[in-house]
Design goal:
Length: 97
């Protein structure tokens, strides 16, 4: 399977590529401990089957960024631009997204 196909996730029966600002969750089979409680935002468009994500509801000031394979993610059908211009590091609380 090519990298392009790996970069596509299924959203309500439709194929959708992960774009900068998309809200995503890591699938439970790829979570350790309580990681499944975190909500993530894609901080770049997917590329070659992976994307950088950042937590937006992490309890500490430091918001970790990690690169993950897109097959490990579940879409939440919302982009941060749909709820405003808030994003990690801009001083706006987006924990309720």
């Amino acid at each position: 399977m090519g990298a392009f196909l790996w970069a596509i996730i299924n959203v309500n029966g439709k194929n959708k590529m992960i774009r900068k600002g998309d809200i995503v969750a890591v699938k439970s089979e790829f979570c350790e401990g309580g990681e499944n409680r975190y909500i993530y935002i894609a901080i770049e468009n997917e590329h070659d089957g992976s994307v950088e994500i950042q937590t937006i509801n992490f309890e500490y000031a430091f918001q970790p960024i990690e690169r993950v394979e897109t097959y490990m993610l579940r879409a939440r059908n919302i982009n941060i631009s749909d709820v405003g211009s808030a994003g990690p590091g801009d001083g706006v609380n987006v924990k309720s997204v």
